[in-house]
Amino acid sequence: MEPYSYDKSFELYDRAEKVIPCGIYGHLGVGRSRLNPMGCYPLFSERAEGTYIWDVDGNRFIDYACAYGPNVLGYGDPDVDAAALAQLKKGNCTTVVSPVMIECAEELIKTVNCADWAFFAKNGGDVTTLAVMAARHATGRKKIVMMKSCYHGVAQWCQSPGTPGVLDEEISSNLYATFNDFDGLKELVEAHDGEIACVISMPYSHVSHYDNILPAEDYWKKVRKLCDEKGILLIIDDVRAGFRMDLAGSDHYFGIKADMLCLGKAIANGWNMSALVGAARLKPVIEEMNYTGSYWLSAVPFAASVAALRKMRALDAARRMQEIGAKLTEGLRQVAEANGALLSVTGLPSLFKIILKDPDGSLIPHQRWIGEMVRRGVYISHFHNMFTNVMITDEDLRYTFDVADEALKITLKEHPEIRTV
Amino acid sequence: MDVKDRIRERIAKTVETANADPEGKKIAAKLPDGKLVVEAGEDLVIPILVRGGTLTLADDPSHPKAVCRFSDAGAAWAVLSGTLSPYAATVHRQLDQQGLSPMNETFEKLWTLVRKRDSDLREV
Fold first, then answer.
1. Which partner from A20, A186, A256, B59 sits 20 to 30 angstroms from A311, CA to CA?
2. Residue A233: beta bridge partners?
3. Which helix (H) or strand (E) holds A201?
4. CB–CB contacts below 8 A, A to B
């Protein structure tokens, strides 16, 4: 098929670059080689519906990035958006809070296993930060354990040494463990006995650029027990994986109960909100925190979230996304195999990670392959795990496999070294 | 000094900063092991080996983990000297960073540190 071109996108970038740092910044931006090979990805979108986005040049994409997580029921889901727009007519950011906030907390408690209460904010980083502050307040301890190369947002405490603007003092109480290495974690905890407030971790390792790592069978149960024995709070950062593995929480999926669970992204199908939920005994701790934001109690996202949570439960959305993801990843694996290439598929199918392997581990052929897919209408990011949503159809999958095959043949001509046979 | 010599000198300084400077070492610790190749046009190719956060200038550019390819020496010097944003250079295809992104991204932070030191924007 004829590859897309992006003339309008690039014209708009020249305008953006004059008035906005980086032109487009952050995880949707042009930095850190995120959109390389440049020219394969659109820079600006016009609209979105269901599982598709259309860029400003009129090109349509099946979007497996799902806005990097929020799109779980389909862009512009009619039920979620109707609830949001009905609330908008009544009020959104006002001086007095809408009762829909209570409804939203009640829905979360009904849905999420470890939730006895819910505290609302806007972004995932708002609630991971609150969880860590609350753990320190609850335990009177300073140190926190995080996993190496983890991502919990962009606040100073969770950035790595050497990051611009981050002081050593701001991260000097961080201890770093290796995900899935229980013995290493235990050793670290014992070396700092009585000093550690919390362990914060994603439910499994989905570090960008690398294969994802699922926990060993008893890993989480052992971590839970260790935390209980040592008076350490266990925080699961479920911002990315939440509602895609198990509507009751990713901690529930792995057979444990977190003390606090951080939620965002899929929680309101793209309407802007996040939530920290947790155990009843921690509610008084949260009540003592000084923590708020201008838009955190706005009513429209609460209404959207209530509708999204109800619809996800009615559809058994997590199971459905796992099934779609399993078909998708198996099909892509078969395309690679038929072309004599090796595709690694890791993580869970609803938030899968794919890497086209090369002998140098450079990802250069992988980036080429992904780029050629994007310019044929299949939007996949080369660096991040991808997502499924409930609107992806078998026809979308067939189109994806055809594009993957065509793009792989182009890649193999340029990179014959990736052939395994 | 010829622009290509300036680029070679700046890359060598970047390697030195990564290995010896306290702030540079902190940044370089995040570099994955492997080979990074800096290219500026067809005849300026600088391979750099990374092992355990220590950088060494090398000779053989084959089997890179990451490639930082400038369209030409002029674009390379413009980015390295801070007169051209790496973001705009990327979008306008004057800078093409391929391969393991953490390698390119971290090396970019190192050359930015060298530029700031060079222009007295930051105390040594």
1. A256
2. A198
3. strand A196-201
4. 82
> Residue A325 phi/psi, 5° resolution?
-65, -35
DSSP one-letter code for B57: E
The burial of B70, by beta-carbon neighbours within 10 Å (0-12 exposed, 13-18 middle, 19 or more buried), is given as buried
The residue of A10, A24, A34, A38 whose CB has the most chain B CBs within 10 angstroms, and thus the best one to mutate to test that interface, is A38
**Above 60 in pLDDT, residue A151?**
yes
DSSP track, A186-219: HHHHHHTTTTEEEEEE-SSB--TTS--BPPPTTH
Q: Are B67 and B98 in contact (CB under 8 A)?
A: yes
- A170: buried, middle or exposed (CB in 10 Å: 19+, 13-18, 0-12)? middle
Q: What are phi and psi of A55, to 5 degrees?
A: -90, 180
* Two structure tokens written together for A405: 């095959």
Please tell me the distance from the alpha carbon of residue B54 to that of residue A367, in angstroms, as a whole number.
27
Question: How does pLDDT run across A95-117, given as a tens digit for each residue?
Answer: 999 999 999 999 999 999 999 99
Q: Which residues of A103-123 are buried (b: 16+ CB within 10 A; e: fewer)?
A: ebbebbeebbbbbebbbbbbb
Amino acid at A347: G
d(CA A40, CA B50): 30
Q: Considering the entire predicted model, what is its pTM? A: 0.95
Choose among B26, B66, B102: nearest Cβ to A362.
B66
State the Cα–Cα distance between residues B77 and B103, nearest whole angstrom.
Answer: 20
The residues spanned by each domain of chain B are: 3-117
CB A232 within 8 A of CB A200: no
A246-to-A221, A251, A258 alpha-carbon distances in Å: 17, 9, 14
Residue of A413, A249, A398, A256 whose CA lies nearest to A331: A398
Chain B residues touching residue A38 (CB < 8 angstroms): 90-91, 93, 96
Decide if A160 touches B, using CB distance below 8 A: yes
- CB contact set of A151 (below 8 Å; sequence gap of 6+): A158, A202, A207, A208
Domains located in chain A, CATH noted: 7-63+317-418 (3.90.1150.10), 78-315 (3.40.640.10)
Q: In sequence order, which residues have a C-beta less than 8 Å from that of residue A96 and are 6 or more positions away? A: none
Q: Which two tokens stand for residue A222?
A: 């052992």
Would you identify the CATH topology of the domain B3-117?
Nonspecific Lipid-transfer Protein; Chain A (3.30.1050)
Nearest chain A residue to B68 by CA distance is: A33
Q: What is the mean pLDDT of chain A?
A: 97
Query: What's the ipTM?
Result: 0.92
Task: Report residue A132 as tokens.
Answer: 């860590």
